[in-house]
Specification:
By secondary structure, this protein is of the alpha+beta class. It has two domains: 116 residues, Phosphorylase Kinase, domain 1 (2-Layer Sandwich), CATH 3.30.200.20; 234 residues, Aminoglycoside phosphotransferase (APH), C-terminal lobe (Aminoglycoside 3'-phosphotransferase, Chain: A, domain 2, Alpha-Beta Complex), CATH 3.90.1200.10. It contains twelve helices and 13 strands. The strands form four sheets. Strands 1-4-5-6-8-7 form a six-stranded antiparallel beta sheet, covered by helices on one side. The chain is globular, with a radius of gyration of 21 Å.
């Protein structure tokens, strides 16, 4: 999906034994399948290039003449993966459902769950030209223009949450109620399974969170499509303007509570710079970034939510997401100890689990995070 090439990327022209990237994906078989789908005229016209990022679900840019697509694949055959992991089928389904809603998503073309084609399940979508900012402080953007990018991100999130998911055929895309109760239970189980030793803040949050779910938070009234990983890095912006042209990485999408998505998107305001890429220890005015309270207020205005009510429960929403994030980081640590972590910085990332939990517990208690402990 990125328009810029990265060091180490290599283009491949079609030949009978060509493969795409480290997975050994046969380009010829893919091209023949695309001909059968009506996406290609000739099976000898395809080129492929591995894209940066996408560690969970690897991606390739495909080209044939003036046409360009992105292939997003599972990292391994289904038999080698957990049943709910790397859910590209869900990605494809939600992207397909969002076509024509105004939410900026790439056009999807085909889902292939037949692993005999290239060895893994995959889907194809349009290649979109644009910019992805790996650093959410937007150093590539002139300082006076940065706030407009956050405004655009906020607009699109509100637009997503306003989509009529029933009308889009997504009534069975997730449960309609008990969202926080279910997720707190799930992440508590994940924490208990992944920890090498108990973390006091996680144990405290596991007790505190179920007792502080806001009124109506578990009901079906506010249920909407949630992205699950909505942050600047997962948005593609127009090549020159503060306009979101594509929301990416829908693997965690489900039906859920909108303020879980909103609060997750604000975690960078509560995290330090460094491995977690936050800016809670930075001078926002110097950076030209908006205040969190203004971002939240803008979202509430767009969604016609009562801002004081949202603010009153904001510590719960933040603590919930920090609890979830800590459990995820502990899972990375578990994989690192087992020698199966895909990220070269897995140990450093996993080491943040305890401080993240501590920040979550501090927020739950009405304090601001201390980034030094």
């Amino acid at each position: 999906m990125q328009s810029k090439k990265h060091p180490g990327q290599a283009s491949a022209s079609l030949a009978p034994h060509d493969v795409m990237g480290p997975g050994g994906v046969p380009l010829l078989q893919l091209a023949q399948w695309m001909v059968g789908q009506g996406l290609l005229q000739r099976a000898d016209a395809l080129q492929a290039e591995r894209m940066a990022g996408g560690q969970s679900n690897p991606s390739w840019q495909l080209r044939a003449g003036a046409q360009a697509w992105v292939l997003r694949a599972k990292p391994a055959p289904a038999a080698q993966l957990l049943p709910s992991a790397h859910a590209i089928e869900r990605e494809y389904r939600v992207l397909n459902a969002l076509q024509g809603t105004g939410v900026p998503v790439p056009r999807v073309h085909a889902l292939c769950e037949d692993e005999s084609v290239i060895g893994v399940a995959f889907y194809l979508m349009d290649f979109v030209e644009g910019r992805i900012f790996r650093d959410a402080t937007l150093p590539e953007v002139p300082q006076p223009e940065r706030a407009a990018y956050f405004e655009a991100a906020c607009d699109v999130l509100a637009q997503l949450h306003a989509v009529d998911w029933r009308a889009r055929g997504l009534s069975d895309f997730g449960r309609h109620e008990a969202f926080y109760t279910r997720l707190i239970r799930r992440w508590t189980q994940q924490y208990e399974a992944a920890r090498s030793a108990p973390l006091a803040a996680m144990d405290q949050l596991a007790q505190w969170l179920p007792q502080h779910i806001p009124a109506g938070g578990d009901g079906a009234q506010r249920t909407c499509i949630t992205h699950g990983d909505y942050r600047i890095e997962n948005l593609m912006f127009h090549p020159t303007r503060p306009e979101v042209v594509a929301v990416l990485d829908w693997e965690l999408a489900t039906l859920g509570h909108p303020l879980s998505d909103l609060s997750y998107s604000t975690l960078a305001w509560h995290m330090p710079s460094g491995i977690l890429r936050g800016y809670g220890d930075q001078d926002l005015a110097v950076l030209g970034l908006p205040q969190e309270k203004d971002y939240v207020a803008a979202y509430c205005a767009r969604m016609q939510l009562d801002l004081p009510t949202v603010q009153a429960h904001w510590p719960f929403y933040l603590a919930f997401n920090l609890f979830r994030l800590s459990a995820i980081l502990l899972g990375i640590g578990q994989r690192e100890r087992a020698g199966v972590a895909s990220n070269t910085t897995a140990r450093e990332i996993a080491a943040m689990a305890e401080p993240v939990a501590n920040w979550g517990w501090a927020i739950a208690q009405g304090c601001q995070p201390d980034f030094h402990h």
